[in-house]
Amino acid sequence: MASLPLLRRRLGQVIRSLRTQAGYSQERFGFAIGVHRTYMGHLERGTANPTIKILHLVAQGLGVSVPELLMLAMTEDSVTMPAAGIVRADQVSSRPRQGAGGPPAGPAGRKRRGGTRGE
Questions:
Q1: Over its length of 119 residues, how does the chain's per-residue pLDDT go in tens digits?
Q2: DSSP secondary structure letter of residue 76
Q3: For site-directed labelling of 34, which of 48, 63, 105, 113 has its Cα 20 to 30 A away?
Q4: CATH of 4-83, one of 1.20.210.10, 1.10.260.40, 3.50.50.60, 3.30.365.10
Q5: CA distances from 18 to 66, 94, 102, 110 (A)
Q6: CB-CB contact of 26 with 32 (8 Å)
């Protein structure tokens, strides 16, 4: 079995490969799934330790399942994968997806307090 740092690097390579095949930039893909672009960079470099929720968002955005994503990362030749289940960037809305009933990530997802300023 691969070490954790090696698995994270391979997972990052798989994510980058699938994302570019789908026609997304890191920024557009991150926006589409509700993850900041800098975190996408960390994922693709293998320096982030993603949660199951993040893996689910990434896999869903790429049109694959979490097990498929992990299996591709565990395969030696994971960078040369078929583009069978990939959802192209022009096939999806540019609006962030709502995950698990919550608001979208980022400034637009923040709740405002009632009332007005200075009262």
A1: 668 999 999 999 999 999 999 999 999 999 999 999 999 999 999 999 999 999 999 999 999 999 999 999 998 664 544 444 555 555 544 444 444 433 344 444 444 455 555 54
A2: T
A3: 113
A4: 1.10.260.40
A5: 13, 18, 26, 30
A6: no
